[in-house]
Amino acid sequence: MCSDEPAVVLSSLARASSPAFSDACAVELSEGTESLFEITFPLPDEAAVPAYPGKRWKSVTTPFQAPSGHGFASFAGVLTHSWAERDPTEDDAIIARLLVGHALAALQRERMALALADADDRAAKLAIELITSRPGRPRPRRYLQPVDG
User: Fold this and answer.
1) For 52-72, what is each residue's pLDDT tens digit?
2) CA 10 to CA 5: how far, in whole Å?
3) Domain ranges (residues) in the chain
4) pTM for the complete prediction?
5) With bands split at pLDDT 50, 70 and 90, how would you rate the model's confidence at 33?
């Protein structure tokens, strides 16, 4: 799940959630000005899609959002966990919120690491520029003279 892209991190969470936590999981994500990203697991063409004809799916929807910062666009969306054979409980809603919170924290950690690496690169380039932009003549060194008391 290590990526600075919300679509990668959240679709990985959806993939891991189904069937480990829920029967299905869907992500709807809007990043800045980009078009809406949507993915559902299990995928329609997977052989392991649970067949529940006539069942009414019950779900827990977890909204999320992150502000822009450090050169990254804001994003927002919802993650929906669904069950076909049971009603979700309050515990399921708490677990879903924790899963989303963990995914967002991992995403933020990756973004902060990239921002830190960019800042380090800029600082190194500025230091080199400062050193190399000095006038061509060497500066005279001044030495302290001992004072006799």
Assistant:
1) 556 678 999 999 999 888 788
2) 9
3) 6-132
4) 0.71
5) confident
